[in-house]
């Protein structure tokens, strides 16, 4: 629904009412109230984002997040707030170690750490300390399952690792955040098998849980899982509508980092940028090339801009693999087959080093690239309407704190 439609039930009546008001502030309040009575906040943000006023969408979302953060802090005591910051850092660091293959056998090594942590929980007598250990245990199990998926590509949403995570949710300091971590991951694995309806239900539950939590990187991580979920949908049906939906969700994820430290913001922003470039270039979640998709010239230009941004320097091992995959696909579309092969070879070296499941798709892509000839991409790049545009991604995003309503912030396509 557009703004004009939101107030069109009786536009003359509204216009006459506003004309009689001398106080501009009062007129603004009436206009805003009228719009909000017809549209959900998420619809307003989406409408602005896909228009020339995308910067207003960013500002609105950041203000919303800021207000939510203040309200959440008011509900939590100082110890809870400090512990959540520590857990967020721990969550980021363990995820970073997995991405950088710091472990010889990531899944097995983190599993051993999890078992040690579980033993510490069972022997701990201090209830506050016990909750803190449960928070760390949940983060470890999430990283353990991520490491397993990196190797296998597919796991069951009923895997014992997820069952174990769920059994500890009520013992953590903030059960709603533990739910966010779990539900986002289960939705992700469901999307790999094409079980989108079930996955959407879990994402709704995750957003409801997020709405009752202090804004944190665990919520940003869940938004990232939703972006990957949408990429799986896009792989099945590469429509312009899905592409816009993915970009909006990725932007929300980036905006949610506005009040985080620079290193935290850069780490998470890279994840979103890489997946956006995948969508623009027609690369699926597990690096399968989307055969039914051909990017527009604008999509190629936007992907190149994202990949050349300074945000992608000195990345972790797994992210560098994604980067080279995207660069290979980009050069293919540009007609530079030699450079495409070179980048793909780099990606495969990294994939083999990390024993990543994506190497199967890369091997298949390498066979295809081997048959290609040098050519120009300009006459072939015509996916979607030639007039369609990708909504701009602002590099320096202000922070907004908005409540995450489960039904507001997931676009069911």
Can you characterise this structure?
The chain is mainly α and 413 residues long. Helices cover 68% and strands 0% of the residues. The chain has one domain (40-369): Serine Threonine Protein Phosphatase 5, Tetratricopeptide repeat (Alpha Horseshoe), CATH 1.25.40. It has 18 helices and no strands. The protein is globular.
Query: Which ranges are low-confidence, i.e. pLDDT below 50, for 5 or more consecutive residues?
Result: 1-16, 73-79, 385-413
Total strands: 0
Q: Roughly how much helix do the residues carry, as a percent range?
A: 55-70%
Distance between the termini: 15 Å
CATH class: Mainly Alpha
H/E topology pattern: HHHHHHHHHHHHHHHHHH
Instruction: Sketch the major β-sheet.
Output: none
Number of helices: 18
Principal-axis shape:
globular
Oligomer category: single chain
* CATH fold title: Serine Threonine Protein Phosphatase 5, Tetratricopeptide repeat
- Computed CA radius of gyration, to the nearest angstrom: 23 Å
Averaged pLDDT: 81
SS class: mainly alpha
Question: Strand portion, in percent?
Answer: under 5%
Q: How many structural units, i.e. domains?
A: 1
CATH architecture: Alpha Horseshoe
